[in-house]
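tool_call: predict_structure(chain=1)
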Amino acid sequence: MFKGNSRNTIDAKGRITVPARWRSDLPDKLVVMFGIGDNPEDKFLQFMTPATFEGAYGAIASSSMTDGAFARAKRFILSNAEDITVDKSDRILIPQHLIRYAELSGEVVLCGVGDHIQIWNPERLDRANGGYGVADFSNDAASYAAKYPDRVFGNAN
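tool_result:
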């Protein structure tokens, strides 16, 4: 599970060093793509293992080319996902079109979010978080628990 965050830099070629604490959990091959979230103003990238990508987007990938909404989703997801590798220096090379989309240059923030890692422009991440804090988390957790009572949330037992 990927957790925590790390400030890092992206070089002129688009390379980012993977933080040491995540290296043992990453295979040599990854998938990087546009970040998908609940706010269309949030522009970030996410990278994950091929198995995580398949689990999250496999149903879209196997949908019919003529099935309206799925055809658009399939085109969007698959045409903007790229296979990447971790090099001998523990760096990943992000394709330039994805760097431009997420407005990455200089300092970046890598956020571990469970089964994948997000890459953010620090200013965009601050705007996306919008002052979110412990009270907001508590409210969200209570809403989640009410919506999904069969799932254990925030309880390590």
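agent: The longest helix spans residues 134-147. Proceeding to next step.
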